[in-house]
Structures are given as structure tokens and as C-alpha cells.
Here is the input.
Amino acid sequence: MITAERKPLDEIIDYIKPFSRILLVGCNECVTVCAAGGRKEVGLLSSALQMAFMKEGKVLDVKELTLERQCDPEYVEELVPLIDQVDAVVSMACGCGVQEVAKRFKEKPVFPAVNTKFMGASERQGVWAERCQGCGDCVLGMTGGICPVARCSKRLLNGPCGGSSNGKCEINPEVDCAWQLIWDRLKSLGIEKTYEEIVPAKDWRTSRDGGPRKIIREDLA
Amino acid sequence: MDTFEPVIVAFCCHYCAYTAADMAGTMRYSYPPNVYIIRVPCSGKVDALHIMKAFQKGADGVYVAGCLEGDCHFKTGNIKAAHMVAYLKGLLDEIGIGAERLEMFTMSAGMGERFARIATDFTERIRKLGPNPAKAGSDKTDKVAVG
Ligand code: SF4
Here is the structure.
């Protein structure tokens, strides 16, 4: 999932200070799962913002709506009946959702309420960790299903650096060394030989280095 | 300020704190009438939104009272409630309402005296803090139903 974290209240309040009617839009997908911008977080932020305004003797009118998905135009369309009743929109979706809303309603200011962080997985209740960087040319088949691009601090592709010690990465003793994990996994699968194969320099053009990316499925488009 | 009578909302777990309140009555311990008790099946059932709405609608202080650690009828409801309360304290600080207006307490069903003492002490704490700074203004939230 795409993970996110709510921005500090001060920053959100700064955005909406000039307005008295806002539409607070959540998203039912990734940000709901990582407890950053689903229906519940919309309710909490709405309440917090209203109280922050009340404290200053002002009234903030908040309309709350959580869309099934904010990154799809069909769902963003559900905001149409409400948009004229507000001065600005605050989105609790990831950056994709914020931009979809901004694209659809050109005349309304749209502000993000969360910081979009990374593509990750839940390690346990309340803990999410980075797992994928969307490099566009997946190497997991060679690395025992553990990603050196997302999980090795140096994105090394041919084994560990000299900083790997006791299974931990040199950047932080709390961080597992991705290459230790990869080696352990290859060994348990009995395919250590894979490790001997030299991986040539990665072509990063499939990643962000090639500029903004797009997928076109001709059969669907 | 002398005439300020705080409004305190206490979310009390049915199995422990609510029964302790009953016990306080039976034992003739008095506690301030400022405390409005809301009985919940478990302290873990109290939602963050219930607490925020209580403040938004004018409560000066809120507390959640659950069972002693290890004694929750639903195993870990009280621990979850304590985590949620800690998180909300941060949020209340961020918006300038103040973390000290919210608290989590634990007690057993037999602790009538503790219930009365907590109710009294917490009421005094909030009396000293003064009214909820967000008290002016009104709830202007509209929920929009879709789909
Ligand atoms: S210690 Fe391991 S994870 Fe850290 S940079 Fe070196 S190889 Fe990568």
C-alpha cells in the first residue's frame, strides 16, 4: 500500500486559516489501512480543526466525505454537489488523490493533510515499513523475494557492503541488512548459486530517472 | 473563575469503573456532580471520536476509566484505550486544548473509594485549568452520505 502520515496540525491550520468553509476528503484505500486518511481520521481531523478555530473565536464549517478512491476520476466526481458550498478542499489521500481533486476542481484551492511516505507493508499492528520503490524492473526473482532496491540503504545489487554486521545495516542497528536477509533466504531455498551471478548495472530509466512514468494498456484505453 | 463549574465526561467500563461508581454510592462516598458518567461495554470500545466530540460539544475534561491492567473482561481493551488516550493527548496539545484535560484511569469493581477520589481530583484539576478554550462557537459539521 501507499503509506502516509498526517501533517502537523499547525501546517494544516495555516493552509485553511483564510477560509471558513472547507471540504475534508478522505480516501477508503491505502490511507485508510495505514490509519492516515480514512473516514475515521477525517472525523478526528474535522473535530480538531473545528476546535482550533473555535478557540480563536471563529467558526469553521466542515463537510466530510470519504471517497472509495481519490485517485480515480469517477469517484472524485462525487464531490461535485458539495464543491460550491466550500471555499477550499483539504485532502487526506496520498499525493495522487490530492492531485486528482486539484485537477478536477481548478477554481478551488486544494491542500494536502498528509505526507505521503512510501510503498510498504504492515509489519504488525500500527507499524509499516518500506518494501518497494517502484523501480520499474523488478529484481525480486533473483533475490529470494527481498528487495535490495527498497531495503538496502545503498541499493546494492551484488551483495552486501562492508557495513553489514550481525545481520544489521550500518546506517542503524534497528535496520536489517537487506543482503543478510537475501542470503539467508537463498540459503534456506537451497539456491545460493543465484548469489554468484553478477548483476549488471541497473538501468534506472525504468525508474524515476526516466522522468514521470505512464502505463498504457491499449486493450483497455 | 470562582463560579466556574467544569463539565466532566467519564467513559466508564461496565465491568469495573461503572460498578466502582455504584460501589461508591453504596459506600456513601460522595463525588462531584460535575462528572457525567457514560457507561460503555469496555474502555476499549471508547472511540477517539467520542472523546473529541465531547470536547467539541463543551466538555471541560474527559476521562476514560477501565479495569486494572490484566483484568480487562475483553483481555486488552483497557490497554488499547490507554494507547488511544495517549495519542489523543498529543492531538489536544497540538490544537491548544491541552493534554491535561484528558486522562485514563484504571480501577477494579470494588474500588468505590478510588472512583470517588479520582472523580474529585480530576474535577479539581479541571477547575484549576478553567473552561475548555474551544467552548465558544458551535458544531458546524455536516456529514454527507454517499452511496
Ligand atoms: S549494511 Fe546491508 S543493507 Fe546496509 S547498506 Fe550495506 S548491504 Fe545495504
